[in-house]
Amino acid sequence: xxxxxxxxxxxxxxxxxxxxxxxxxxxxxxxxxxxxxxxxxxxxxxxxxxxxxxxxxxxxxxxxxxxxxxxxxxxxxxxxxxxxxxxxxxxxxxxxxxxxxxxxxxxxxxxxxxxxxxxxxxxxxxxxxxxxxxxxxxxxxxxxxxxxxxxxxxxxxxxxxxxxxxxxxxxxxxxxxxxxxxxxxxxxxxxxxxxxxxxxxxxxxxxxxxxxxxxxxxxxxxxxxxxxxxxxxxxxxxxxxxxxxxxxxxxxxxxxxxxxxxxxxxxxxxxxxxxxxxxxxxxxxxxxxxxxxxxxxxxxxxxxxxxxxxxxxxxxxxxxxxxxxxxxxxxxxxxxxxxxxxxxxxxxxxxxxxxxxxxxxxxxxxxx
Length: 368
Ligand code: GLA
Prior knowledge:
40% of the residues lie in helices and 15% in strands. It is of the alpha/beta class. The structure holds alpha-D-galactopyranose (GLA).
């Protein structure tokens, strides 16, 4: 008896006690891929528990930061692929569907990209040349190793107009088409995606659909739309999310829920920038520094349960659901848009243990 208890305890320490339990990627295998954004520590194993969770639970990965322009080409023509290489190797070692993120975006892109040698604005020709060189270098390095690319990220404003970025200002509206054309030439075997947030808002969604249709009408390949899921306990509503999935599915595009996390903290986006920058003075913006109350944990569990029921009902349209991170402790939401908050958005807690929301998500698939 004593020996048996010791054996079980040893298995638990080694993390083996869980090894016979079904995992997220297993219970969802007939419906859609389960992915996560991973940082360097997860990919390299420096964060060993999170590394193991990713291997056990996920069959797709997206790089949290290491493939963004500022990381792979911080200075003109100077490429640094060390971390991106490690990320891709991690995905290959574990047979995961690898998503490259992201080629063209207005954020985390160095200023020099949009400037000429004298720090004036780059010309259209110069910026197009840079766009193509960057896409060639990055996608070309991983040709046939990366299965899909977020070609363009967040190009639409909340009202549905094109976002006023240097890409738009300097190149003009066809920068979108150019980005997809360059990506197709450089990575002919990869799927090509448009990725954005708040597409549950009808006016923003109309803008995205307009741009996607333009690409389709021009015969430019686009395979899927990534619907970022940086959501909250109560909003957007399930109806809003459902309408979004259905509208994009009607275009005959694959739909992905990307960047899923559920913040349980007060919504500072609805407040002024002043408030956002004054977290130390506003304890009410960080109500749960010492732990998540049971009532909020229950709401989070129910939210995840309802979302995955909805995703399962639409599994024929949904190809992948990707969480933005592995566990609460390393979520970007602890630092953004205000520094130093304590959020609880994911399925694994700060101790890397499964939360009740994890069990709910597993059960929803088992009962489907
Ligand atoms: C956006 C980007 C991601 C990431 C998240 C938050 O949604 O697409 O790359 O930066 O914000 O971390």
